[in-house]
Amino acid sequence: MFNIFYLSYLNSVTARGWQKLNQMNRKEKIIRTWKGWTSFENAPIYENMLIYEVFPEVKRKGVEGLEKVSISTMEKNNEVEFFLILQFDSLESVKMFAGEKYDKAYIPDNAKRVLSRYDDMAQHFTLKKELILK
Questions:
Q1: Stated pTM of the model
Q2: 30-126 sits in which CATH class?
């Protein structure tokens, strides 16, 4: 006859085993961050460029692993700072987006014309957990 402690132990071992197997089969999502700055008057132009030109063009070029783009801004010292967060399904997708030297920032020429300055390099992080708190 099984006792409750043994059943609890079996359940725990099975759960850990499934969790490990799930982690082994799962690609790690990559978060890419980047900053650029522009004037107050160019901020809406750049924002629209990102939404209606830059990222739709990226998708048209076949970068399927780009899952999400977040665009944040902060007004500071007579300019607007843009903070972009891109979520990719894998490092391979980042490389498809930015090339083998994927740390280098991807800035189309038309964007360079409205930005006053920008980071030359992007940062990459491995997404560990995403909590949805509603």
A1: 0.78
A2: alpha beta
